[in-house]
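Budget justification aside, the reviewers requested a transparent look at the raw inputs and outputs of the sequence design task funded under Objective 1. We therefore reproduce one unedited record. The lines immediately below are the structure tokens for a 250-residue chain.
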């Protein structure tokens, strides 16, 4: 069986900085992979390369066995890629549930027949409401994004990514800025998404949470994978401990 997501030999430099240094790894269907490493290791760059927001100088990205290296982000999204953050900002004039509906619209082709469009809007609202339940935001459906506390804005970001019905979800530091209780609650939501079948690549500085959630950790340092395996084994690896020395991330 081929992996759901594969990167092979990814190379990307910014001036003299190597952000991805011939990086290769694969993620199997159903996995929750924790992608960690000190600041500047290349974690965000790798997610952006996978999403098509950056183009590699060399190397390939495959989704479901299909080479998507030359494809724009929206084509990758149609192939099942979901990502938070960089894709689209929330519309502050719309409610929470409407924001999720708009995100879902990126997936659908527009139906020109008004009657069908109306049915489709009702269906989209129901689907959006179901997503809000999954991420624990049902009570905030009618609020505006700007009125939400940070923890709930993070959940809205997740909801909008889920509206794309991803098979592989890329999360870039979803717990940044959250209290430990909020981070743990978001962790439970992420775990539930994985348990119900979504493959997840989680970049996260909260090592306690990422070790609780992931069964496999991949550690990056200066664009290279320096360790890959079960969290306990990886965190005991001297190369990993050395990479974290003197950084705030540990
Ligand atoms: N757009 C950019 N222009 C120049 N350098 C960049 C850019 N994006 C990232 N970098 C550099 O690439 C390296 C990896 O960055 P990044 O992927 O953001 O790391 P991480 O997410 O692990 O903190 C860093 O040295 C960073 O400064
Ligand atoms: Mg980053």
């Amino acid at each position: 069986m081929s992996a759901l997501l594969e990167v092979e030999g990814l190379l990307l430099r910014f001036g003299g900085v190597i952000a991805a240094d011939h990086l290769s790894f694969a993620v199997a269907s159903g996995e929750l992979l924790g992608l960690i490493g000190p600041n500047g290791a290349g974690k965000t760059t790798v997610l952006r390369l996978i999403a098509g927001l950056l183009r590699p100088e060399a190397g390939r990205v495959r989704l479901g066995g299909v080479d998507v290296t030359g494809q724009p982000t929206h084509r990758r999204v149609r192939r099942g890629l979901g990502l938070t953050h960089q894709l689209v900002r929330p519309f502050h004039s719309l409610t929470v549930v409407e924001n999720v509906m708009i995100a879902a619209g990126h997936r659908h082709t527009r139906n020109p027949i008004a009657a069908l469009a109306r049915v489709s809007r009702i269906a989209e609202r129901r689907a959006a409401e179901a997503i809000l339940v999954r991420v624990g935001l049902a009570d905030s459906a009618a609020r505006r994004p700007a009125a939400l506390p940070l923890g709930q804005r993070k959940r809205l970001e997740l909801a909008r990514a889920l509206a794309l019905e991803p098979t592989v979800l890329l999360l870039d530091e979803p717990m940044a800025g959250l209290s430990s209780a909020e981070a743990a609650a978001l962790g439970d939501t992420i775990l539930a998404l994985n348990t119900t079948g979504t493959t997840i690549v989680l970049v996260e500085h909260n090592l306690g949470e990422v070790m609780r959630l992931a069964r496999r950790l991949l550690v990056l340092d200066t664009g290279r994978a320096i360790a890959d395996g079960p969290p306990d084994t990886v965190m005991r690896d001297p190369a990993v401990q050395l990479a974290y020395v003197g950084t705030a991330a540990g």
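The chain has two domains: 1-80+166-250, 88-165. The pocket of adenosine-5'-diphosphate (ligand 1) is lined by residues 14, 17, 19, 37, 39-45 (CB under 6 Å). Computational costs for records of this kind are itemized in the attached budget.
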